[in-house]
Specification:
alpha/beta; 284 residues; Helix-turn-helix domain-containing protein
Length: 284
């Protein structure tokens, strides 16, 4: 069973419950149609457990859901539209469940809008920078574990090279560019890579300069994920040292989307941002 973030399971369960009620069926009647125990239907509808590909198909058949677009949307929620088990599951003993949740969301997203205040976003990091950040954040960790975490970080970047790549909109505090993570050589290489990636059509990179003063997102980094086919499933992820917080409420989403829009408006243009990155790189 592929690992599906709790927020996706809950939303899928809500949608399936609405469909069952619209079909005029009780959970017990639905279970009997499928040869399941009623508790299985309840666990799926409450988001306690995920649903396998064949079970979702059978459930939708039982509920009379024939619209191919709706079935596709529900499959996206369940994670059944991807091929096989997520690659990150091979690192189950290395990365915690909340990180696996984050990677799963990232792999399914159409766009990601991210604010970073101290380090380069993971999707844009060079191997040397990723290693330096990991060692600094998790001091004293065995080298083998650091190696595995860096592998995960670099594997995540495949979403930017997929046939339909993730659209990334990144706003970086100028401090991200000037913090000497790993030393001058590592930073020079990292800044060069930022300049190269920022020229790709699906990556938009802007810098909030020191001269701009304070800004609405100064309290910390965040990511806003948006998903294909489904317009009302955006969510905000706030990263903490030991956990991640997922925000789904409409009010939270509106606040963070508005904040990100404001930061984009106050940040340097993409061209001026590239000029600043190049200038800092020359002096790194």
């Amino acid at each position: 069973m592929r690992h599906i973030p709790e927020v996706r399971r809950r939303r899928l369960g809500e949608e399936l419950r609405k469909l069952r009620q619209s079909a005029g069926l009780t959970s017990g009647q639905t279970a009997r149609l499928l040869g399941w125990h009623q508790s299985k239907v309840s666990r799926i509808e409450t988001g306690v457990s995920g649903v396998k590909d064949e079970d979702l198909a059978g459930l939708l058949d039982a509920l009379g859901v024939s619209d191919p677009q709706l079935r596709l949307l529900l499959g996206a929620l369940a994670g059944t539209t991807s091929n096989g088990q997520g690659w990150w599951m091979a690192y189950g003993g290395v990365i915690p469940p909340q990180y696996r949740d984050f990677i799963s969301l990232e792999s399914q997203a159409r766009t990601a809008r991210t604010l970073e205040t101290s380090v380069v976003p993971g999707l844009l990091q060079t191997p040397a920078y990723a290693r330096a950040v990991t060692r600094a954040a998790l001091g004293g960790m065995p080298s083998a574990r650091v190696d595995s975490l860096v592998e995960v970080r670099l594997a995540r970047q495949e979403v930017l090279r997929a046939g339909i790549p993730l659209k990334l909109h990144a706003v970086l505090d100028e401090a991200v560019l000037r913090r000497q993570v790993g030393g001058p050589g590592v930073m020079r290489e990292q800044l060069l890579q930022l300049s190269e990636l920022a020229r790709l059509p699906h990556i938009c990179l802007q810098v909030l300069p020191f001269t701009g003063g304070g800004y609405v997102g100064l309290t910390g980094p965040f990511v806003i994920f948006s998903f294909p086919h489904i317009t009302d499933l955006d969510l905000v992820v706030l990263d903490h040292l030991t956990n991640s917080l997922y925000l789904e409420r409409k009010e939270d989403l509106e606040a963070y989307c508005a904040a990100f829009g404001t930061m984009q408006a106050h940040a340097l243009s993409t061209e001026d941002s590239l000029d600043l990155i190049a200038g800092i790189g020359d002096g790194a």
